[in-house]
Design brief:
Helix content: 10-25%
Distance between the termini: 60 Å
Number of strands: 24
Number of helices: 9
Shape: globular
Radius of gyration: 23 Å
């Protein structure tokens, strides 16, 4: 059906893209009871660009003879825009197809269940997620790739706020013991909480950085935001001379690695900042043509999940976000407020970068003594946060989309409730 639809589109003088997603996911979860679940899905996203440069998009679970006509009807509702283009065929350095093993999940759940001996478990779950992405278009793009990741989650408390840990990994040797140790340590710290007194530097753990920056950075550094003025950053400005922010889809060990983006463009490493200078906005085909700049192959169809969605056309997103600072400390937490878990990240104002968030899991570290803090309001601005970033820890870790050490920030506002 792919070939038939693409041949028809060429004869009609229109551009056609068929995005296909095949998903196989095995999950075991427990709230009150253990629930195993097998999910298998297949879906298609159809993008057409008609002879007037109008774009139409539809999605369906099965291709049929009327697919092209349905998408063309939608395109007639759009506005002509010469930047509506599909990518041309380009050479791709294909990573090896990768799948995870669902059999691993049972052992992970047995291990997670041991947490019940020490804390009140709200929920635990483990998933093996395998999916295949295929993209075919009238311009010659024909790409296909199998990808797989494990997702492990645990939420627990013990006379404390709920503390969670997640793990997204491609490694068959899932480091579940480390997840458990982190969860138990943080719950123990938070059992006795005090109010924060005085002004301290703030250290963000990798988990807090993932909450704060994994969604924000692609929005703040997208070509669309620079063009529309909906970001506090400016191209060419120096934020922090010691800071590097990199989008790296090519490290095959990381969970969001990919050979091509969600339009079929070959993946590339993007230095968003270099020596603290804003160098490259993230782009997809539309915005690279619109602004006549390099296409960074940052087309994304993710809806706050691991797996791309066939229900939406591509926008701009990121893969694995690497954050480095040239000042590295071994005792970065000393004499600081350590923020590990945040509430309210959906309220961040991306136009200004302003945020006001509750740090519901945080502690004061004084010479290695960790004292849990009652909910602390963290207010500030992401641009100012990056400017005031003074150091990184040696322990670089991958948490969600973020690969970083813990980051220490000075002069960040904190307001007690």
């Amino acid at each position: 059906m792919y070939d038939k639809l693409i041949s028809r589109a060429k004869l009609m003088g229109i551009s056609l893209e068929i995005f296909s997603l095949k998903l196989k996911e095995y999950t075991i979860s427990k709230e009150k009871f253990y629930v195993p679940e097998n999910v298998e899905k297949i879906g298609y996203g159809i993008r057409v660009i008609d002879d007037k440069s109008r774009m139409g998009y539809i999605y369906m679970k099965k291709l049929d003879e009327n697919t092209l006509e349905q998408a063309l009807k939608i395109s007639k509702l759009g506005e002509p825009d010469k930047a509506n283009v599909l990518p041309q065929k380009q050479p791709i350095n294909k990573m090896s197809d990768y799948e995870v093993n669902p059999d691993v999940i049972k052992d992970v759940m047995i291990s997670l269940r041991e947490l019940e001996e020490n804390v009140n478990l709200t929920t635990i779950s483990a998933s093996a997620i395998n999916y295949e992405v295929s993209i075919f278009n009238t311009e010659g793009v024909e790409v296909r790739e199998k990808r797989g990741v494990y997702l492990v989650q645990a939420v627990a408390s013990k006379n404390t706020p709920e503390v969670y840990e997640i793990l997204v990994s491609k490694d068959h040797k899932i480091p579940v013991n480390k997840l458990k140790e982190n969860l138990l340590e943080k719950i123990k710290i938070m059992e006795n909480r005090e109010r924060l007194e005085g002004k301290r530097d703030v250290v963000f753990t990798q988990k807090a950085l993932n909450e704060l920056l994994s969604t924000a950075l692609p929005k703040l550094f997208s070509a669309r935001s620079f063009h529309k003025g909906t970001t506090p950053f400016k191209l060419g400005e120096i934020i922090n001379e010691g800071l590097e922010i990199i989008d790296d889809p090519l490290d095959s060990s990381l969970p969001f690695s990919r050979s091509f983006d969600d339009e079929g463009n070959p993946s590339k490493v993007v230095n968003i900042t270099d020596k603290g200078q804003v160098r490259s906005p993230l782009t997809n085909s539309y915005w690279s043509v619109k602004l006549t700049i390099e296409n960074t192959s940052s087309a994304s169809r993710q809806l706050d999940s691991i797996v791309p969605s066939y229900t939406i056309p591509p926008s701009i997103g990121s893969s694995n976000i690497v954050i480095r600072h040239n000042n590295v400390e071994s005792d970065i937490e000393d004499n600081s407020v350590v923020v590990d878990q945040l509430e309210g990240v959906n309220t961040i104002d991306y136009s200004s970068g302003d945020f006001s968030l509750i740090a519901n899991v945080s502690w004061l570290n004084e010479k290695g003594n960790k004292t849990g803090l009652k909910e602390v309001m963290i207010t500030g601005n992401i641009k100012q946060l990056l400017k005031n970033l003074v150091s990184s820890s040696k322990d670089v870790e991958n948490y969600g989309k973020i690969i970083s050490g813990k980051l220490r920030v000075s002069d960040l506002s904190r307001v007690r409730p």
